[in-house]
Design goal:
Length: 415
């Protein structure tokens, strides 16, 4: 489902119709060193990559090639090629914008309230046909396109479809689904007795699961749980399957190749090359909970505190950061909590320049940051521009603040 809705978001953002979309998942993940175009292809599963190091894209395009495995929690990331292609076929057959046709049907199916967590492909397929009929009408071209898509990938036949739709309709009636709106279901409490999170990892040829109970909701922004264990612990551990919670890495069979780079861009995507961690990180490998970020906040002492307040109010405002806290002798800036502080110069003598780089959402924000700095007495050290010596999309502008520090705004996204 993540591939479906991720592709819909991409198409909506780019203004693409179902016919004009590329239907690739993870495009741009690989560098030129890898023989491949993406991590997965919804249009043609099994064709996304074919590389000497990574191997060939293992996804099947139909039930005829279903991969029967206990790995990857039953092959949830491998066999997803089958429903992915069904969605592609339905979307292109319906035509127009996928989020208005097949996407709406898939959304209705997921939110309708009658789909059970253990539904198989055929059950889900029948549910989508039911949802298409409810949305577009009995005998509509849209409902026919959805049914035909599932038939093309070998999930449903006409006789099986009839039985599945009848069974799904009965489950919908019993679950209290009225007019397509599910009744509210109580949430399972977290904390004591909460479902256990599992982090699945692969290293060399071993596989296992380490688990830790999470006291906060799965999507809570405040949750920093982390399950960490040694390779031997992972290999020996076991647990109940947890579909779509599988994390995997690319491990090269050739010694030394990973140090030289496998051609994978580690800044994006689901696959990342295995890397030897620094000594300090390896010391925490046996169960320590590591923070999500290296720094929580930083602070500077200012010779002219009021002037620095005016300066940073202006330049950080262009990046969407505001003064969130003021304790008299210091104040903190951030988006949701203070991460950058300035205050009165109270300790130490002499000046040593500091360099601070603030993240900008786009290149226009970098330009606005520098302009605001100049308007408030800042000196431009380096005009905003692409700096390929760092990387091809590095766009930064540097100014000097009232205390003489080198302050930068940088955007890492393509222009």
């Amino acid at each position: 489902m993540s591939d479906v809705f991720g592709s819909l978001v991409k198409q909506h953002l780019l203004g693409q119709s179902a016919a004009s979309a590329d239907w690739l998942i993870g495009e741009g993940l690989f560098t030129d060193a890898v023989q491949g175009v993406a991590l997965r292809s919804m249009k043609a599963p099994g064709t996304a990559y074919d590389d000497p190091t990574l191997g060939k894209d293992p996804q099947p395009a139909s039930m005829a090639d279903l991969v029967d495995t206990s790995d990857d929690n039953g092959g949830v990331h491998i066999n997803s090629g089958i429903p992915n292609r069904a969605f592609y076929l339905a979307a292109t057959a319906i035509g127009g914008n996928a989020w208005e046709g097949a996407g709406a049907v898939w959304y209705d199916t997921l939110t309708g309230g009658s789909l059970e967590p253990d539904a198989d492909f055929a059950t889900f397929a029948a549910a989508t046909v039911t949802a298409a009929t409810a949305r577009f009408g009995e005998g509509s071209p849209q409902a026919a396109a959805v049914a035909d898509a599932w038939a093309q990938v070998g999930v449903l036949s006409s006789s099986r479809l009839g039985r599945r739709r009848a069974a799904h309709h009965e489950r919908s009636r019993r679950s209290g689904r009225v007019g397509g709106t599910p009744q509210a279901r109580p949430r399972r409490p977290h904390g004591a007795g909460a479902p256990v999170w599992r982090v699945h990892r692969r290293a060399a040829r071993a596989r296992g699961a380490a688990r830790r109970a999470c006291p906060t909701p799965r999507r809570s922004a405040g949750c920093r749980c982390s399950a960490r264990a040694s390779l031997l612990d992972l290999a020996a551990a076991s647990g109940e399957p947890a579909p779509d919670r599988y994390v995997y890495q690319v491990v090269s069979p050739q010694p030394g190749l990973l140090d030289a780079g496998t051609g994978l861009d580690v800044r994006a995507g689901e696959q990342q090359p295995a890397r030897r961690r620094p000594v300090a990180a390896r010391r925490h490998a046996a169960g320590a909970v590591m923070p999500a970020a290296v720094l929580d906040h930083v602070g500077l002492q200012c010779a002219d505190y009021p002037a620095s307040q005016r300066f940073y109010d202006a330049v950080l405002g262009e990046l969407g950061l505001t003064r969130l806290m003021d304790v008299g002798v210091a104040c903190g800036y951030g988006a949701d909590h203070p991460v950058f502080w300035i205050g009165l110069h109270e300790t130490g003598t002499g000046f040593r320049e500091s360099h601070l780089a603030f993240a900008a959402a786009d290149r226009a924000a970098v330009d606005a940051f520098v302009a605001a700095a100049v308007a408030h007495g800042g000196e431009v050290l380096h005009e905003p521009r692409v700096r390929p010596e760092y990387h091809e999309h590095y766009y930064g502008g540097f100014v000097r603040d009232p205390d003489g520090n080198n302050v930068e705004a940088v955007c890492h996204r393509p222009g």
